[in-house]
Amino acid sequence: GCHRLNIEPTLPSCVNLHCSRVVIMSLSQFVSQSIQRALLAWETYVYIAKANIMYICPFSGPVKGKVFITNYRLYFKSADAVMTLNVPLGAIGRVEKMGGASSRGENSYGLDITCKDMRNLRFALKQEGHSRRDIFDILFRYAFPLSHGLLLFAYLSQEKYEENGWSVYKPMDEFRRQGLPTDKWRITFINDNYELCDTYPTILVVPFKATEEDLRKVSTFRSRGRIPVLSWIHRENQAVICRCSQPLVGMSGKRNKDDERYLDVIREANGTAKLTIYDARPSVNAVANKATGGGYEGDDTYQNAELVFLDIHNIHVMRESLKKLKDIVYPNVEESHWLSSLESTHWLEHIKLVLSGAIQVADKISGGNSVVVHCSDGWDRTAQLTSLAMLMLDSHYRTLRGFQVLLEKEWISFGHKFASRIGHGDKNHADQDRSPIFVQFIDCVWQMTKQFPTAFEFNERLLMTILDHLFSCRFGTFLYNCESARDTNLRSKTVSLWSLVNSDSTSYLNPFYTPESSRVLYPVASMRHLELWVTYYIRWNPRIRQQQQSPVEQRYIELLALRDEYLKKLEELQLTDSSPNSSHLSNSSAPNAASPTQHITHLHTPF
């Protein structure tokens, strides 16, 4: 049993010794003990099924077993202890009752659970005595704690790690790394109390020539007060990526001289002939937004700027696209019509458009021209474009810690609406604000790692861990919509995801990584070069063979470990050789003999 459960068969856990007799625990007792050992700090049981429940596995049919629910996860273990399910409650998007008291047919009465991580679960119970009432109520309560006046698990967790992930991103340190401030760009604290813009961070970088009063005037003409501010500056040519929201032009074609002058100051900062404004939306959508007071920068009013529409669709289109993708990959993959089915979801088409837009931004910056990027409100498509362009331009963001800084800066501090898009702890599964914008971004990053396998210090496991904990509510990293909405004590009350990652960083490293500080990456954004991220989207299907680590990568890791082992032995030999007791050995050695230090260069030969 210990072997099948993949648990160390230690004697004290499995047996009781009394009067020289061994009493074997029941399987159910042993299973519950094994689960208990796996619980996180402050994770407690809220429900333990008294009787067996039937899990309707879409791959192998009905499986009888026990369900355990804690304040963090739903755990199912089959009666024979072969099959397990381990689902963070935060990953649950919807819980529904299946069938009624009069339902007929085997396994027609129970629960349907829709998850946010590309899987669904179905459990069948006996119809007698309202057997599902307790499990439904408990599951509904703890899967959606905010809808029931409870705290998210991140506020209950007391996990301890060697590193404090909250110290990863310090805005001033990151701006200094970029070479800021300069004689053209300054740091302002005008938003220190979120008075200028309640969805922006407190520390902003703006043109040196723009006064605080100028910033206030511009904020009145930008949606949500999200004025153009610097995200990244090119060290050599001083071209900048600025991000913002749409101008409030409206149907009457309003103008704002302060906004027009402000964009011209951005253009002048590095002598750009014409400022390029990348509007992420399709042009028809941008025009339609005028009806609700929004709009875009017209050529007649912004004469030193050119406007480029990138044709990336809105959050509702992306939500429906991922829903269609889920339909074709879970539970069954339609092999005979796979390519046409995948094409009908348009998911890879959207990935292509996002990557293509980011490439245009990066290329313009490399050519020495400053850009401004926006969509409607500047917290969805804008974040995708700026962060991907920065990933292409700046090798620092391609390191393990640099990527964490990128997410903290462009997504978390600049107000991507994680709470609204993911629905942490919220029972309203039909909320129209839900959308997989961040999942789509991570998919784009994965596409880049496939095309440039040596350019990124981190591996696929990091990307999957990030997405798993985007939903789990185990960490405080992705909670809330913006900085001002976050609890001021969030950092002291919750643990950062980067604490987990950086305390075990070797698990997230790419063995093929080769640092190249000045290299700009231009991925190929064509349908022929993009592929579905099978190991994420279809990972729950046991019939789809998981992409195993390649033999070359496996051998490379083995050789690296062997090198480290030899280096350690060499250090031990050097220590032994330098000790007083071994001095007579060195005196008697031949004059031409090579010293241990002379051999180090051979051990450092790259594999």
Automatic annotation (TrEMBL):
Gene Ontology MF terms: phosphatidylinositol-3,5-bisphosphate 3-phosphatase activity; phosphatidylinositol-3-phosphate phosphatase activity; phosphoprotein phosphatase activity
Entry annotated with the keyword Disulfide bond: no
Ranges for domain Myotubularin phosphatase: 165-537
UniProt-listed InterPro entries: GRAM, Myotubularin, Myotubularin-like_Pase_dom, PH-like_dom_sf, Prot-tyrosine_phosphatase-like, Tyr_Pase_AS, Tyr_Pase_cat, Tyr_Pase_dom
Subcellular location: Cell membrane; Cell projection, Filopodium; Cell projection, Ruffle; Cytoplasm, Myofibril, Sarcomere
SUPFAM superfamilies per the UniProt record, alphabetical: (Phosphotyrosine protein) phosphatases II (SSF52799), PH domain-like (SSF50729)
The enzyme's E.C. designation: 3.1.3.95
GO biological process, one term: negative regulation of autophagosome assembly
Region (Disordered) residue spans: 577-607
Enzyme class at the top of the EC tree: hydrolase
Binding site for substrate: 314-315, 375-381
Keyword set, alphabetical order: Cell membrane, Cell projection, Cytoplasm, Endosome, Hydrolase, Lipid metabolism, Membrane, Protein phosphatase
Membrane topology, as annotated: Peripheral membrane protein
Gene3D superfamilies, A to Z: Pleckstrin-homology domain (PH domain)/Phosphotyrosine-binding domain (PTB)
Active site: 375 (phosphocysteine intermediate)
PANTHER family xref list: MYOTUBULARIN, MYOTUBULARIN-RELATED
Similarity comment: Belongs to the protein-tyrosine phosphatase family. Non-receptor class myotubularin subfamily.
Name recorded for this polypeptide: Myotubularin
